[in-house]
Amino acid sequence: MTKIKARDSFEYPYPPEVIFPVLADITGYKKWWPKEFRVKILHKERGYKNSKIEVWASGGWFRCETRRTIFPKRVDISYYQGVVVGDSWWEIEPLANERTRVSYEIDLEPNGLLMKLVVKVINISALHSFQFKRVLKKLHSYLAQMDSEPKMKKLI
Prior knowledge:
seven-stranded antiparallel β-sheet
């Protein structure tokens, strides 16, 4: 079976403690993911673990769930239903000057006959990376917006 593997990273001018809660709250992805990814909240848990969403993307739909969080370093997410199944995770790495490298890695398998045929023709790993670069840029915009909100409140 053809695996779908990819790792995409981006550096942000924020410390890990600011970024971690945004990534751990899978139900919050609806707020900041690009609009073409329709995110539906299926279940929200306190403490993030076992929260679930459904995502409709250009390649079909999938459901995923937060499996484990390690503050402020890692968030493990399981894809359990839809066009792909398997594991993914966010790695949050502190850098100098309160900067952080965020990486998202997937280790998935196609699910269903149609998807198993598609991966033989289309490089889904490359397509995922292409799409996920937009997700990482939207995260940057969302973090910048969050960062400016307290400053705005102080001015008022």
